[in-house]
Design a protein that fits this description.
The chain is α+β, with helices and mostly antiparallel strands. Helix content is 49%, strand content 12%.
Length: 150
Amino acid sequence: MENIKDLINNYLLVKKDDTDLFDVLHFVQSQIGCIPEDIQKFIAARMCLELSEVHEVIEISSSFQEKKQISVTVCSGSGCTMKGSMEILGIISKELGVNLNDEDKSVFLTVKNCFKACSYGVNIEVNGELFHNVTVSTLGRVLEKIKFYY
């Protein structure tokens, strides 16, 4: 969350006095797909607003109502499969409560035959960000990123 707070601070510095709450909320949503409660509190404090003002803008505007679907793709190529990608896929599925290709969930879990980064496998992509050398023991960093988008 510190990264998004830094991004908000930088955004506000660049925009200076021309920024309104609606602009900031759109910026945050474009970066992470949603506006979590702790980020709402941060924005309110940073912009010297009441939290209720932030909530009101979010509730009134339909553009902030939907969460963006999170895309998670696990490599199913032979190199990554030999390194445990299918076991990792199973753990992600169980941890997030989603099945492969289940479009009705906020997380869309799928496989891809190859990311063309075989020497860095197991490879997993989360909303366009590629994670290399993922193992069962390092899967936590990928799950943190997925949960960040929730």
